[in-house]
Design goal:
CATH class of the domain at 156-255: Mainly Beta
Number of helices: 5
Helix content: 10-25%
Structural class: alpha/beta
Number of strands: 38
Length: about 350
């Protein structure tokens, strides 16, 4: 579409020629004529000055130079998402209906417009809400309830008695409701503790590929509305995740931990069991959380500390080599003074 039209669609203010035809989206370094690009972080200002894009989206307060027209917006991330929606090629949705190779137990309740793909298995007592899509090879266990307008990508497994809300997306290979890791030790051997609870997933949740959310030992493992979970995340039994929390890939949360609302966990963050992480906490990548974190705290490191304390400690550690040199010089000087005193 014309740049003028695209700028209007993303609620931006255009500066420059609005006639270029925009056909795609690309990063500043990779963009070519016809692409629109984005400068979300000021550190990419130099890349913007060299880009071959036909236009670039910037924050309203941006100050700098650009070889192409710019579109000023309040939220570049949101604008990028809108552009992707407008410009990306449409992926055909599967037609409603049940594929002939699917195995659906008698009495399963399937809403209007549901699509059940090849080789899916739906066990007795399950309920699938209107317009939900089950892609090839999904397994839906006994008495599972899935809401409306959900999308389950290929090979998703939803085990027995799990509840999933509306408009939730679960990506390839994720497992919701597998057994929690519960064992007791006797006479030198491990013995399994039955995991008789379930999992409840709210509305507008996204669960990444190969993520696992374990059922509760008893009670409920709960993922609240609006939670966004990246790929390869492990959520243990009886964990509670608050609304609109987001976690990046390879996060691991041990059993019975409570994570508040609007929390952000960076990649590879590890969280111990039976902890409380307050609302609005941010944990930097690879942090190891071993104790409760008060609301609104930014933590980093292993063990995780308030960020300013971590930086101060790191600065102190980085000075150790210099301090060792100074101590060695002082010891040498002290020895010389002792010799002089002894001779005197």
């Amino acid at each position: 579409m014309k740049l003028t039209e695209l700028a209007e669609q993303i609620e931006g203010t255009l500066e420059g020629d609005g006639n270029p035809e925009i056909t795609g989206i690309a990063g500043l370094d990779d963009a070519r004529p016809g692409d629109i690009s984005f400068m979300i972080n000021p550190k990419y200002a130099a890349a913007l000055e060299k880009t071959q894009a036909s236009a670039a989206v910037v924050e309203r307060k941006w100050e700098g130079t650009s070889p192409c027209p710019v579109v000023r917006v309040d939220n570049p991330d949101k604008a990028m998402a809108l552009c992707a929606t407008l410009l990306a090629p449409e992926i055909p949705k599967p037609e409603p209906g049940i594929h002939e190779t699917a195995i659906v137990a008698e009495g399963v309740k399937i809403g209007d417009g549901v699509s059940v793909g090849p080789y899916c298995v739906i066990r007795a007592g399950a309920e699938i809400g209107p317009r939900t899509i089950l892609s090839a090879g999904c397994y839906i266990g006994h008495n599972v309830k899935i809401g409306a307008d959900c999308v389950l990508d290929p090979h998703v497994v939803v085990r027995h008695q799990v509840k999933i809300g509306n408009r939730t997306v679960i990506h390839d290979g994720a497992v919701v409701g597998g057994d929690g890791f519960g064992n007791y030790r006797e006479a030198g051997r491990w013995h399994k503790i039955p995991q008789i609870g379930t999992v409840e997933v709210g509305d507008d949740v996204e669960i990444g590929s190969n993520t696992t959310i374990d059922r509760a030992r008893f009670g409920v493992t709960k993922i609240a509305d609006g939670v966004k979970i990246d790929n390869l995340v492990q959520i243990g039994h009886n964990v509670q995740i608050g609304e609109n929390t987001a976690m990046a890939g390879l996060v691991g949360i041990s059993g019975s931990t409570v994570v508040g609302a609007n929390v952000m966990l960076g990649g590879q963050v590890g969280v111990g069991g039976h902890l409380k992480i307050g609302d609005g906490v941010i944990a930097g990548g690879k942090s190891g959380i071993s104790k409760d974190i008060p609301p609104g705290t930014f933590v980093f490191g292993y063990p995780a500390l308030p960020y300013k304390q971590y930086v101060a400690n790191h600065h102190s550690v980085s000075r150790i080599p210099k301090l060792k040199e100074q101590i060695t010089a002082l010891e040498r000087r002290l020895a010389e003074l002792e010799k002089m005193i002894g001779k005197g």
